[in-house]
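> run fold Coatomer subunit epsilon
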Amino acid sequence: MANQGAPDLLFEIRNSFFIGNYQYCINEAQKLKRIQHYQLNDPVLQLEKDIFMYRAYIAQHKYGVVINDITSSSDPELQHTKMLAVYLSGDADKKKDVVHSLEKKIQNINPEDKILPLIAGLIYFLEEDYDSTLRILHKCDSLECHALTIQTYLKIHRIDLAQKELNAMKEVDEDCTLTQLAQAWVNLSKNGEKLQDAYYTFQEMTDKYASTALLLNGQAAALCAMAKYEDAESLLQEALDKDPNCPETLVNMIVVSQHLGKTNEVSNRYLSQLKDSCKDHPFVKDYSAKEQEFDRLSKIYAPVSSN
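> ok
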Protein backbone atom coordinates (compact mmCIF):
# COMPACT_ATOMS: atom_id res chain seq x y z
CA MET A 1 0.00 0.00 0.00
CA ALA A 2 1.10 3.58 -0.55
CA ASN A 3 2.56 5.48 2.36
CA GLN A 4 0.31 7.74 4.38
CA GLY A 5 0.11 11.12 2.66
CA ALA A 6 1.68 9.88 -0.59
CA PRO A 7 -0.34 9.68 -3.82
CA ASP A 8 -2.35 6.49 -4.02
CA LEU A 9 -1.14 5.14 -7.36
CA LEU A 10 -3.54 2.22 -7.17
CA PHE A 11 -6.71 4.19 -6.49
CA GLU A 12 -8.01 4.04 -10.06
CA ILE A 13 -7.17 0.34 -10.35
CA ARG A 14 -8.73 -0.59 -7.04
CA ASN A 15 -11.77 1.64 -7.43
CA SER A 16 -12.56 0.52 -10.97
CA PHE A 17 -12.45 -3.09 -9.83
CA PHE A 18 -14.88 -2.41 -6.99
CA ILE A 19 -17.47 -0.78 -9.26
CA GLY A 20 -17.16 -3.49 -11.93
CA ASN A 21 -15.23 -1.48 -14.53
CA TYR A 22 -12.93 -4.42 -15.17
CA GLN A 23 -11.42 -3.49 -18.53
CA TYR A 24 -10.48 -0.06 -17.23
CA CYS A 25 -8.89 -1.75 -14.21
CA ILE A 26 -6.79 -3.91 -16.53
CA ASN A 27 -5.86 -0.98 -18.75
CA GLU A 28 -4.76 1.15 -15.78
CA ALA A 29 -2.73 -1.72 -14.31
CA GLN A 30 -0.91 -2.26 -17.60
CA LYS A 31 -0.39 1.47 -18.04
CA LEU A 32 1.05 1.79 -14.54
CA LYS A 33 3.42 -1.07 -15.27
CA ARG A 34 4.96 0.95 -18.09
CA ILE A 35 5.38 4.13 -16.08
CA GLN A 36 8.82 4.68 -14.60
CA HIS A 37 8.21 5.86 -11.06
CA TYR A 38 10.23 5.30 -7.92
CA GLN A 39 7.19 4.09 -5.96
CA LEU A 40 6.69 1.23 -8.40
CA ASN A 41 9.89 -0.27 -7.05
CA ASP A 42 7.85 -1.17 -3.98
CA PRO A 43 7.17 -4.93 -4.37
CA VAL A 44 4.05 -4.69 -2.20
CA LEU A 45 2.58 -2.09 -4.54
CA GLN A 46 3.53 -4.13 -7.60
CA LEU A 47 1.93 -7.24 -6.13
CA GLU A 48 -1.34 -5.51 -5.23
CA LYS A 49 -1.54 -4.06 -8.74
CA ASP A 50 -1.05 -7.48 -10.32
CA ILE A 51 -3.61 -9.11 -8.04
CA PHE A 52 -6.31 -6.61 -8.98
CA MET A 53 -5.42 -6.94 -12.65
CA TYR A 54 -5.72 -10.74 -12.62
CA ARG A 55 -8.93 -10.60 -10.58
CA ALA A 56 -10.34 -8.27 -13.23
CA TYR A 57 -9.46 -10.86 -15.88
CA ILE A 58 -11.26 -13.47 -13.77
CA ALA A 59 -14.31 -11.22 -13.52
CA GLN A 60 -14.30 -11.08 -17.33
CA HIS A 61 -14.20 -14.90 -17.42
CA LYS A 62 -10.74 -14.78 -19.03
CA TYR A 63 -9.48 -17.59 -16.85
CA GLY A 64 -6.86 -18.80 -19.32
CA VAL A 65 -4.93 -15.53 -19.10
CA VAL A 66 -4.59 -15.92 -15.34
CA ILE A 67 -3.82 -19.62 -15.40
CA ASN A 68 -1.12 -19.21 -18.07
CA ASP A 69 0.49 -16.07 -16.63
CA ILE A 70 0.80 -17.19 -13.02
CA THR A 71 3.35 -19.95 -12.54
CA SER A 72 4.78 -21.93 -9.65
CA SER A 73 7.53 -19.31 -9.34
CA SER A 74 5.02 -16.45 -8.90
CA ASP A 75 4.33 -14.86 -5.53
CA PRO A 76 2.16 -17.00 -3.22
CA GLU A 77 -0.58 -14.35 -3.27
CA LEU A 78 -0.74 -14.59 -7.06
CA GLN A 79 -0.94 -18.37 -6.84
CA HIS A 80 -3.87 -17.98 -4.44
CA THR A 81 -5.54 -15.78 -7.05
CA LYS A 82 -4.88 -18.42 -9.70
CA MET A 83 -6.83 -20.92 -7.57
CA LEU A 84 -9.98 -18.87 -8.11
CA ALA A 85 -9.46 -18.92 -11.87
CA VAL A 86 -8.87 -22.68 -11.85
CA TYR A 87 -11.97 -23.19 -9.71
CA LEU A 88 -14.23 -21.09 -11.94
CA SER A 89 -12.93 -22.63 -15.15
CA GLY A 90 -13.18 -26.23 -14.01
CA ASP A 91 -15.85 -28.91 -13.98
CA ALA A 92 -17.32 -30.38 -10.80
CA ASP A 93 -14.33 -32.66 -10.20
CA LYS A 94 -11.83 -29.85 -10.74
CA LYS A 95 -13.77 -27.66 -8.32
CA LYS A 96 -13.57 -30.41 -5.69
CA ASP A 97 -9.80 -30.64 -6.23
CA VAL A 98 -9.43 -26.88 -5.74
CA VAL A 99 -11.48 -26.95 -2.53
CA HIS A 100 -9.43 -29.89 -1.24
CA SER A 101 -6.20 -28.04 -2.00
CA LEU A 102 -7.61 -24.93 -0.38
CA GLU A 103 -8.41 -26.76 2.83
CA LYS A 104 -4.75 -27.73 3.13
CA LYS A 105 -3.55 -24.18 2.52
CA ILE A 106 -5.77 -22.51 5.10
CA GLN A 107 -4.51 -24.75 7.91
CA ASN A 108 -1.41 -22.56 8.17
CA ILE A 109 -2.36 -19.07 7.07
CA ASN A 110 0.31 -16.40 7.35
CA PRO A 111 -1.25 -13.55 9.39
CA GLU A 112 0.29 -11.10 6.89
CA ASP A 113 -1.44 -12.81 3.96
CA LYS A 114 -4.56 -10.79 3.14
CA ILE A 115 -5.30 -12.60 -0.12
CA LEU A 116 -5.68 -16.25 0.89
CA PRO A 117 -8.58 -15.62 3.33
CA LEU A 118 -10.34 -13.52 0.68
CA ILE A 119 -9.87 -16.06 -2.13
CA ALA A 120 -10.84 -18.91 0.19
CA GLY A 121 -13.90 -16.96 1.30
CA LEU A 122 -14.91 -16.35 -2.32
CA ILE A 123 -14.58 -20.03 -3.20
CA TYR A 124 -16.52 -21.18 -0.14
CA PHE A 125 -19.16 -18.56 -0.95
CA LEU A 126 -19.49 -19.97 -4.47
CA GLU A 127 -19.71 -23.44 -2.93
CA GLU A 128 -22.59 -22.08 -0.80
CA ASP A 129 -20.66 -23.19 2.28
CA TYR A 130 -21.44 -20.07 4.24
CA ASP A 131 -20.23 -21.39 7.60
CA SER A 132 -16.76 -21.94 6.15
CA THR A 133 -16.93 -18.57 4.40
CA LEU A 134 -17.54 -16.72 7.65
CA ARG A 135 -15.00 -18.80 9.54
CA ILE A 136 -12.16 -18.01 7.15
CA LEU A 137 -13.09 -14.34 6.68
CA HIS A 138 -12.97 -13.87 10.44
CA LYS A 139 -9.20 -14.29 10.19
CA CYS A 140 -8.77 -11.19 8.01
CA ASP A 141 -9.73 -7.59 8.70
CA SER A 142 -9.36 -6.10 5.21
CA LEU A 143 -12.23 -4.06 3.79
CA GLU A 144 -12.81 -6.65 1.08
CA CYS A 145 -13.15 -9.40 3.65
CA HIS A 146 -15.60 -7.23 5.59
CA ALA A 147 -17.57 -6.67 2.36
CA LEU A 148 -17.72 -10.39 1.55
CA THR A 149 -18.78 -11.09 5.12
CA ILE A 150 -21.67 -8.66 4.63
CA GLN A 151 -22.70 -10.41 1.40
CA THR A 152 -22.62 -13.73 3.24
CA TYR A 153 -24.77 -12.47 6.10
CA LEU A 154 -27.26 -11.06 3.61
CA LYS A 155 -27.29 -14.41 1.80
CA ILE A 156 -28.38 -16.16 5.02
CA HIS A 157 -30.84 -13.35 5.84
CA ARG A 158 -28.97 -11.98 8.86
CA ILE A 159 -29.38 -8.29 8.14
CA ASP A 160 -28.60 -7.50 11.78
CA LEU A 161 -25.14 -9.06 11.54
CA ALA A 162 -24.57 -7.47 8.13
CA GLN A 163 -25.30 -4.07 9.65
CA LYS A 164 -22.85 -4.77 12.48
CA GLU A 165 -20.15 -5.68 9.95
CA LEU A 166 -20.96 -2.54 7.97
CA ASN A 167 -20.44 -0.44 11.07
CA ALA A 168 -16.99 -2.01 11.42
CA MET A 169 -16.19 -1.06 7.81
CA LYS A 170 -17.25 2.52 8.46
CA GLU A 171 -14.86 2.73 11.38
CA VAL A 172 -12.01 1.76 9.06
CA ASP A 173 -12.91 3.95 6.05
CA GLU A 174 -16.41 5.36 5.76
CA ASP A 175 -15.71 7.12 2.46
CA CYS A 176 -14.23 4.13 0.62
CA THR A 177 -16.18 3.07 -2.47
CA LEU A 178 -16.39 -0.47 -1.14
CA THR A 179 -17.92 0.76 2.13
CA GLN A 180 -20.47 2.80 0.20
CA LEU A 181 -21.34 -0.23 -1.92
CA ALA A 182 -21.74 -2.35 1.20
CA GLN A 183 -24.09 0.28 2.62
CA ALA A 184 -26.18 0.05 -0.55
CA TRP A 185 -26.29 -3.78 -0.34
CA VAL A 186 -27.58 -3.59 3.23
CA ASN A 187 -30.14 -0.94 2.29
CA LEU A 188 -31.39 -3.17 -0.54
CA SER A 189 -32.31 -5.74 2.08
CA LYS A 190 -34.47 -3.24 3.94
CA ASN A 191 -37.78 -1.64 3.08
CA GLY A 192 -39.11 1.88 2.70
CA GLU A 193 -36.81 4.82 2.16
CA LYS A 194 -33.70 2.63 2.50
CA LEU A 195 -34.42 1.27 -0.98
CA GLN A 196 -34.38 4.79 -2.35
CA ASP A 197 -31.11 5.42 -0.51
CA ALA A 198 -29.59 2.35 -2.16
CA TYR A 199 -30.73 3.55 -5.58
CA TYR A 200 -29.16 6.96 -5.05
CA THR A 201 -25.87 5.42 -3.90
CA PHE A 202 -25.54 3.43 -7.12
CA GLN A 203 -26.63 6.46 -9.14
CA GLU A 204 -24.06 8.72 -7.47
CA MET A 205 -21.28 6.23 -8.20
CA THR A 206 -22.38 6.02 -11.82
CA ASP A 207 -22.27 9.80 -12.11
CA LYS A 208 -18.94 10.08 -10.29
CA TYR A 209 -17.00 7.21 -11.85
CA ALA A 210 -18.58 5.24 -14.68
CA SER A 211 -21.72 3.39 -15.68
CA THR A 212 -21.05 -0.32 -15.24
CA ALA A 213 -23.18 -3.47 -15.31
CA LEU A 214 -22.61 -3.88 -11.58
CA LEU A 215 -23.88 -0.40 -10.70
CA LEU A 216 -26.77 -0.57 -13.17
CA ASN A 217 -27.88 -3.88 -11.69
CA GLY A 218 -27.75 -2.33 -8.24
CA GLN A 219 -30.03 0.48 -9.37
CA ALA A 220 -32.35 -1.99 -11.12
CA ALA A 221 -32.56 -4.17 -8.02
CA ALA A 222 -33.64 -1.17 -5.95
CA LEU A 223 -36.27 -0.23 -8.55
CA CYS A 224 -37.59 -3.80 -8.64
CA ALA A 225 -37.94 -3.78 -4.86
CA MET A 226 -40.01 -0.61 -5.28
CA ALA A 227 -42.08 -2.32 -8.03
CA LYS A 228 -40.79 0.10 -10.70
CA TYR A 229 -40.21 -2.64 -13.26
CA GLU A 230 -40.32 -0.55 -16.42
CA ASP A 231 -37.61 1.77 -15.09
CA ALA A 232 -35.60 -1.26 -14.03
CA GLU A 233 -35.91 -2.80 -17.49
CA SER A 234 -34.44 0.34 -19.08
CA LEU A 235 -31.38 0.18 -16.83
CA LEU A 236 -30.96 -3.54 -17.39
CA GLN A 237 -31.05 -3.04 -21.15
CA GLU A 238 -28.21 -0.54 -20.76
CA ALA A 239 -26.35 -3.10 -18.65
CA LEU A 240 -26.83 -5.73 -21.38
CA ASP A 241 -25.37 -3.33 -23.93
CA LYS A 242 -22.24 -3.07 -21.77
CA ASP A 243 -21.95 -6.80 -21.06
CA PRO A 244 -24.36 -9.09 -22.96
CA ASN A 245 -23.38 -12.13 -20.88
CA CYS A 246 -23.46 -10.64 -17.38
CA PRO A 247 -25.34 -13.32 -15.40
CA GLU A 248 -26.80 -10.88 -12.87
CA THR A 249 -28.25 -8.77 -15.68
CA LEU A 250 -29.78 -11.82 -17.37
CA VAL A 251 -31.32 -13.07 -14.12
CA ASN A 252 -32.79 -9.65 -13.41
CA MET A 253 -34.11 -9.46 -16.98
CA ILE A 254 -35.89 -12.79 -16.47
CA VAL A 255 -37.52 -11.51 -13.30
CA VAL A 256 -38.49 -8.14 -14.78
CA SER A 257 -39.94 -9.79 -17.91
CA GLN A 258 -42.21 -11.91 -15.73
CA HIS A 259 -43.40 -8.92 -13.70
CA LEU A 260 -44.10 -6.92 -16.86
CA GLY A 261 -46.23 -9.76 -18.22
CA LYS A 262 -44.10 -10.39 -21.27
CA THR A 263 -44.41 -13.60 -23.23
CA ASN A 264 -42.60 -16.73 -22.11
CA GLU A 265 -40.47 -16.51 -25.23
CA VAL A 266 -38.84 -13.34 -23.90
CA SER A 267 -37.84 -14.75 -20.51
CA ASN A 268 -36.89 -18.09 -22.07
CA ARG A 269 -34.52 -16.28 -24.40
CA TYR A 270 -32.74 -14.67 -21.47
CA LEU A 271 -32.70 -18.01 -19.65
CA SER A 272 -31.14 -19.76 -22.65
CA GLN A 273 -28.50 -17.06 -22.87
CA LEU A 274 -27.77 -17.46 -19.16
CA LYS A 275 -27.40 -21.22 -19.54
CA ASP A 276 -25.02 -20.75 -22.46
CA SER A 277 -22.83 -18.15 -20.79
CA CYS A 278 -22.92 -19.30 -17.16
CA LYS A 279 -24.26 -22.83 -16.84
CA ASP A 280 -23.01 -23.15 -13.24
CA HIS A 281 -24.82 -20.03 -11.99
CA PRO A 282 -26.92 -20.73 -8.85
CA PHE A 283 -30.06 -19.50 -10.65
CA VAL A 284 -29.51 -22.02 -13.45
CA LYS A 285 -28.83 -24.84 -11.00
CA ASP A 286 -31.94 -24.01 -8.97
CA TYR A 287 -34.08 -23.68 -12.10
CA SER A 288 -32.84 -27.02 -13.47
CA ALA A 289 -33.50 -28.73 -10.14
CA LYS A 290 -37.07 -27.40 -10.12
CA GLU A 291 -37.58 -28.56 -13.72
CA GLN A 292 -36.46 -32.06 -12.80
CA GLU A 293 -38.68 -32.10 -9.73
CA PHE A 294 -41.65 -30.91 -11.79
CA ASP A 295 -41.04 -33.66 -14.35
CA ARG A 296 -40.81 -36.23 -11.58
CA LEU A 297 -44.05 -35.14 -9.98
CA SER A 298 -45.78 -34.94 -13.36
CA LYS A 299 -44.99 -38.58 -13.99
CA ILE A 300 -46.28 -39.59 -10.57
CA TYR A 301 -49.60 -37.79 -10.93
CA ALA A 302 -50.09 -38.25 -14.66
CA PRO A 303 -53.47 -39.88 -15.45
CA VAL A 304 -53.26 -43.54 -16.30
CA SER A 305 -54.44 -44.19 -19.84
CA SER A 306 -57.15 -46.81 -20.15
CA ASN A 307 -56.81 -49.56 -22.76
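The radius of gyration is 21 Å.
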